[in-house]
Amino acid sequence: MKTYAVAIIGAGMISKSHIAAINNLPNAKCVAITDIIHEKAQAAAQKVNCPCFTDAKEMLEKVPEIDVCILSLPTYIHSDYVSLCAEYGKATLCEKPLEMTVEKAERIRSVVQKTGIIYMTAQVVRFWTGYREIKEMMKNGEFGDIYMSYFSRCSEPQKWGNDWLFDPVTGGGAMYDMLVHDIDFMNYLYGPAESVYTVATKSDTNCYNNVFASLIYSGGAKGVAETSFTMKTGYPFTMTAKIMGSKATAEYIYSAGYDINQRNGAIAVLKLFRDGKTPEIINVEQYDAYTKQLAYFLDCVDRGVQPDIVTLDQSVEVIRTIDAIRRSADTNSIIRLR
């Protein structure tokens, strides 16, 4: 079994989950970490006993054995670093959201198509316990006709020296950082949205940090996605999913710590309700979704195929949808995507 040499570019908060995933897998080893802040790169590298850098190009030059790059960088520079990794022929797992604009998302698609690198956006919810079960139940028709779906993702403001996240141009706040997960998962269930209508408010950062987005899909399904970065001190990072169908209703609630890295002791409950039957608590498999995601990506790299659980076309469509949600909030109008 080949052991893949994995490099981390960006040693911010979410890199901890990716490094843990590398350490969890027998066929992966962290061989280099880069961050423009030397102290952050050094602290992360010391924990896994690998070299650190402050320049990604220098890292790629000096550690040529790298097979895979994981990008845990500010959103607005994703296209620059996907392009850099592609220049060196490295398989690339890039944190969500894909980019801040449709134009930059299309740039990534063009680079991947031109160079042929194996690429995936880290839309980790597609690998998350509870959500995977909902996807399987949907595939098997257990819900019947879908009346409505509701997805929510709320927390305190996620601050760790990441001012870029709370800038409407570079990070976009909760609308781009949090809502993107649920828009992606709804697209995973129903396909691309036909239209969106958004009710949202901006916080003092001038980002949309409280959002309700209503979406209609071509198959007739309708859904609402909620996000907030304005919950007050002590409110746990909480994800909720509800599917209301003609045959069954499902409710999933996941509650962690202050941020998504604090998953030890998280509460995760999936319940299924049917007419005339006792409510059922589904025994969901317990595992680390970041490890599951990386294992899948490395398998794709091993087989030399592009991922099909999360495709690049789907990731671009998510950015098109988020862009429409933002424009709907700006104009207080329905935005049609097709």
UniProtKB/TrEMBL annotation:
Please give the coiled-coil regions recorded for this protein.
none
> What's the short name of a Pfam family annotated to this entry?
GFO_IDH_MocA_C3
Q: Which residues form the GFO/IDH/MocA-like oxidoreductase domain?
A: 131-250
Give all residue intervals belonging to the Gfo/Idh/MocA-like oxidoreductase N-terminal domain. Answer: 6-121
Cross-referenced InterPro entries: Gfo/Idh/MocA-like_OxRdtase_N, Gfo/Idh/MocA_Oxidoreductases, GFO_IDH_MocA-like_dom, NAD(P)-bd_dom_sf
A Gene Ontology molecular function term of the record: nucleotide binding
Record protein name field:
Predicted dehydrogenase
Q: Provide the species name.
A: Flexilinea flocculi
